[in-house]
């Protein structure tokens, strides 16, 4: 059984299409990830740590790793993606991932969906994406999400059922048009930053207190006919009239 694959540092850029697929005993890959031009399927391997993955030569559609949830990958370092069509990271045991840089794709839809073991912070730099729907849906253990994606329009179910996340920060929410269930069942959220948001959304049943709700109110854009639902949050019962006016003076209707 093949347990380890090593590639010389001098190996030129090469098509590694499915070279790792279904090597069920493979536990270690020694490789400079800047070398492959195509990786494709990486199902059923047991590599514990993939290290930093700068996939600079994987630029064509579907050239980045298509990872099966049956893999035992525990750790990925910083991940830099250049492809225009990146596959979801459907891993079974992923506990840690470094900064994710998405340079050319237009979405990160479902990239980390159902990573039930994933812990710590998730930091994403994605200047060109317009959609992040279901990005961390059902990720039950991670703590913080930082998303630098100034063009994003769709955050449907962004943090749906992400029970443990307590700090969510988008650097720019001014282009968002779809917030459906973005924070539904994300009960632990204490701090939420959405600078420039101008479309109806809900933070019901989150754990946002009054001071952090005021910060959220200050992030709101001036609008006409938009609603922010804050019911069943710690803030909803203790916000003062003056604090609520921060939002309502910008045209928002507060529910809760």
Could you describe the 3D structure shown?
It is built from 2 helices and 16 strands. The chain is mainly beta and 256 residues long. The strands form 5 sheets. It has a 7-stranded parallel beta sheet with strand order 5-7-9-10-11-12-13. The N and C termini lie far apart (61 Å). The model has no long low-confidence stretch (mean pLDDT 88).
Jot down its keywords:
7% helix; 20% strand; elongated; seven-stranded parallel sheet; 16 strands; 2 helices; mainly beta; three-stranded parallel sheet; 256 residues
Short description, anyone?
The protein is mainly beta. The protein has helices spanning 210-219, 241-248; strands at residues 4-6, 14-15, 28-30, 36-38, 53-55, 75-76, 79-81, 96-97, 100-102, 121-125, 144-148, 167-170, 191-193, 201-202, 226-229, 252-255.
State the shape.
Answer: elongated
Task: Name the average pLDDT.
Answer: 88
Write down the secondary-structure element order: EEEEEEEEEEEEEEHEHE
Give the tally of β-strands.
16
**Amount of beta strand:** 15-25%
CA-CA gap between termini: 61 Å
Largest sheet: 7 strands, parallel
Q: What order do the strands of the largest sheet run in, or round the barrel if closed?
A: 5-7-9-10-11-12-13
Helix/strand structural class: mainly beta
- Tally of individual helices: 2
Residue runs with pLDDT of under 50 for 5 or more positions: none
Percent of residues in helices comes to under 10%
Radius of gyration: 20 Å
What secondary-structure arrangement, pairings included, does this model have?
Blueprint: E1 4-6, E2 14-15, E3 28-30, E4 36-38, E5 53-55, E6 75-76, E7 79-81, E8 96-97, E9 100-102, E10 121-125, E11 144-148, E12 167-170, E13 191-193, E14 201-202, H1 210-219, E15 226-229, H2 241-248, E16 252-255
Parallel strand pairs: 1-3, 2-4, 5-7, 6-8, 7-9, 9-10, 10-11, 11-12, 12-13, 14-15, 15-16
């Amino acid at each position: 059984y093949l347990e380890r694959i090593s590639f010389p540092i001098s190996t030129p850029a090469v098509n590694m299409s499915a070279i790792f697929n279904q090597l069920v005993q493979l536990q270690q890959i020694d490789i400079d990830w800047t070398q492959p031009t195509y990786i494709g399927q990486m199902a059923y391997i047991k590599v514990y740590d993939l290290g930093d993955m700068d996939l600079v030569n994987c630029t064509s559609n579907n050239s980045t790793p298509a990872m099966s949830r049956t893999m035992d990958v525990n750790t990925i370092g910083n991940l830099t993606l250049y492809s225009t069509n990146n596959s979801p990271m459907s891993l079974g045991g992923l506990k840690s991932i470094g900064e994710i840089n998405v340079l050319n794709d237009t979405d990160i839809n479902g990239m980390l969906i159902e990573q039930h073991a994933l812990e710590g912070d998730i930091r994403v730099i994605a200047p060109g994406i317009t959609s992040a729907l279901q990005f961390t849906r059902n990720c039950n253990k991670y703590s913080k999400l930082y998303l630098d994606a100034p063009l994003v329009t769709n955050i449907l179910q962004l943090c749906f059922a992400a029970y443990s996340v307590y700090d969510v920060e988008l650097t720019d929410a001014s282009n968002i048009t779809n917030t459906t269930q973005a924070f539904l069942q994300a009960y632990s959220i204490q701090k939420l930053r959405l600078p420039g948001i101008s479309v109806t959304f809900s933070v019901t049943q989150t754990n946002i207190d009054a001071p952090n709700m005021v910060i959220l109110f200050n992030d709101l854009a001036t609008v006409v006919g938009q609603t922010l639902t804050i019911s069943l949050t710690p803030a909803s019962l203790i916000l003062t009239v003056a604090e609520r006016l921060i939002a309502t003076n910008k045209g928002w209707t507060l529910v809760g």
